[in-house]
Specification:
The protein is an all-alpha fold. The protein has one domain: Arc Repressor Mutant, subunit A (Orthogonal Bundle). The protein has 6 helices and no strands. Helix 1 packs across helix 3. The N and C termini lie far apart (65 Å).
Length: 115
Amino acid sequence: MSRIKSPREKEIAAAYARGENYQRIATSLHIAPSTVRTHLATIYRKLGVSSKIELLKALEGEHPQSKNSEEQAMLISELALSLEEAMYRRSFLPFLVMHSNYAMRNLEYCSRIVP
């Protein structure tokens, strides 16, 4: 973890490697999930890792396998982080649809009783 200097980055890296998701990390640190994602992208780039397993190994002092190119590693880490964030956001879709339908029904009802 010597390439990670920031205490915040160390905290986020450790939490993510333990299996916590963006939202849980963000809530516990009182920051936005997008900020967690930005920190993780920076951490992945600094450590040259492209998965949680590689991140955990790097945090434990093991050196990640060498990559064909640094760009490939950066792309893979960005895609992995984007996928996790997209999956988290998708989990809220049913909730949002239900509440928007409820709001529309209330609006229709109110428009009928208030001329």
